[in-house]
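Data availability (excerpt). The following record was deposited with the supplementary files.
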Amino acid sequence: MPVASTRPSTWLAPRPASTDVRALGLDLGERRVGVAVCDSAGTVATPVETLVRSGDPERDLRTIADRVTEWQAEIVVVGLPISLDGTEGPAAVGARAEIDRLERFLAVPVVSYDERLTTVIAERSLMEQQMKGPERRGVVDQVAAAVMLQSWLDAGMPRG
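Predicted structure:
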């Protein structure tokens, strides 16, 4: 079993010179991947899709690559599940391994960003909209991806 890491995450990187960028945000889960995109000006993140894991990691990578092409993304921002105390536990270690695979597979830069509490925020938002449990399950991951991506945009799009 992986040991928790205290390695600082890439979200502390400096702000890039340009702010116009089309980004694709991913909320990685064991069963689903939430997908969000931002407008070409890099100001507003929108949830777009929840991908169901196929059980074949290569197929899942190809599906994500297809979404990068479809949305003309110039960068992929992947949520990193950092603990509330700022450390990286087993979930973050697994996410970093998948981020490494994405970096090798995709033709665009891949950065990680702190996704702390994004699912909680997404769940609350959906409950406020009176969305029932089964319906929420189908969209919570993409809403969490949008919350994370919007946070990244608001922070000045830090790159690792």
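Summary of structural features: The chain is about 40% helix and 20% strand.
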